[in-house]
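Changelog note: in this version the structure field was regenerated for every chain. One regenerated record is shown below for reference.
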Amino acid sequence: MHLPYFLKAPAVAIIGDTCYTTLIEDFDYTHVPCIKYAISKGLGFGIVAGGAIVKVPQIIKIVQARSAKGISFYAYMLETLACVISLAYNVRRNNPISTYGETFFVTLQNLAILGLMLNYTGKRASALIVLSSFLFLGNVLGRTAEHYLEDGTLVQSALVPMEVLVFLQTATIPINLFSKVPQIIENYKNGSTGQLSAFTIFNYFAGSLARVYTTLTEVDDIVILSGFLLSTLFNCILALQMALYWNSAPAPSKIKSEKGDGSSSETKKRVKKLD
């Protein structure tokens, strides 16, 4: 089958000439490598599209409640740091955008959530500092420049050497994991997921699971693969908490309970005096 050019061009750009000919023109669906590659591309672009809106429900929930109660600020700080590093690393490595594109959108949405969290606690100056710092860091890590030597050799230079960026990308594995831990603890202590969005949590779990497959298929990088494997594990825990605490109200604060205990004890004393 021969597709019109306006359909063929994007198809070839996504799965390549060889797989396009094999799957589309020759209808050879026994070619396992091309089948796996096409599935990986489909999942990859699906995750990128999902990443563009994955945290929008979370943002809406915070705005409607005018509160970020139950959401760990430190968890979002760590996750955003890991996202900024990963985005710069993938761009510098020239990895296919289908294998990391959602990181760009998640970073922007995380910055919006951090800004809202600080804004609703009256820390607008801190919000400006935090957002500016992350944007500056991303620019420093990802910026490269190309120039030619006298012999015509093209040389690429960067503010941050690739060796340092590889180390930072490796460091995103524990950073990503620790970014989930505060939220998991917060959920456990409250017996509730607060203003967390179920859509965001479940999509994160599904997305990280799919990313394991796309990384295995398209990117030969054990550092990235290890990160996605461990991220899937912790996202699974958050998804289980979301299911377990579904519609659960937050546990009453200790301060209130202590006051309550105090008032009840005072009442008992008064009753005794009256007796």
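Spot check on this record: Strands lie at 144-148, 154-158. Residues 255-261, 263-275 have pLDDT under 50 and may be disordered.
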